[in-house]
Amino acid sequence: MTSLASAGFSIFILVMFLGIYLSLLGLPGAILIFLDVLIYATATGFIQVGWKLLLFLLIFAILAEAIDVFSGMTRAYKPSVIKKTLWGTALGALAGALILTPFLWGLGSWTGFFLGGLTGFAITELMRLSKIKGPSPAGNATFLAMIGTKMLKGFLTIIMIFVSLSNIYS
């Protein structure tokens, strides 16, 4: 692999991590992962990634983003993304990846990044909510629904990444 190809593949992997991170923040991370794989497939001449895989990823990306849309329609709690939330999520993601990678290797990196980021996000949001005077904008049920929605969307993005990398490395 040439140095240009190595740099391109490194960017490809980093964009996948960014996709998970954006999914945790309620942004279209699954779409970003799909577009990342589409660009990779185009750049490599569709040798390792075919149209069937791209269709599978597109369906999963639409499903993952539809989960966010439907949760917004049901008046589920939508946290505001502030600087502390960004940092808490990033630190949690990094810690989760570092903790789970030795146990699950490659899958641990992705799963740890997601679960650690989700934990960092939840802790940061709980700390922010505990400082609010008066009635909280999120009760226990709505907060847990928001966490469940993020978990479902995150696991769909992890499946997208796992299937993509399995096809690329096989």
Class from helix and strand fractions: mainly alpha
Give the number of DSSP strands: 0
Give the helix proportion (percent range): over 70%
How would you sum up the major sheet? Answer: none
What is the residue-mean pLDDT, rounded to a whole number?
91
* CA gyration radius, whole angstroms: 17 Å
* β-strand amount: under 5%
Low-confidence stretches: none
Q: Number of helical segments?
A: 5
Sketch the topology as an H/E string, one letter per element: HHHHH
Q: How far do the termini sit from each other?
A: 16 Å
Record the SSE blueprint:
Layout: H1 3-24, H2 29-43, H3 51-73, H4 83-130, H5 140-169
Describe the protein.
This protein is mostly helical and 170 residues long. The protein is built from five helices and no strands. The protein has one domain. Helix 1 runs parallel beside helix 4 and helix 1 runs antiparallel to helix 5. It is globular, with a radius of gyration of 17 Å. The two termini are 16 Å apart. The mean pLDDT is 91.
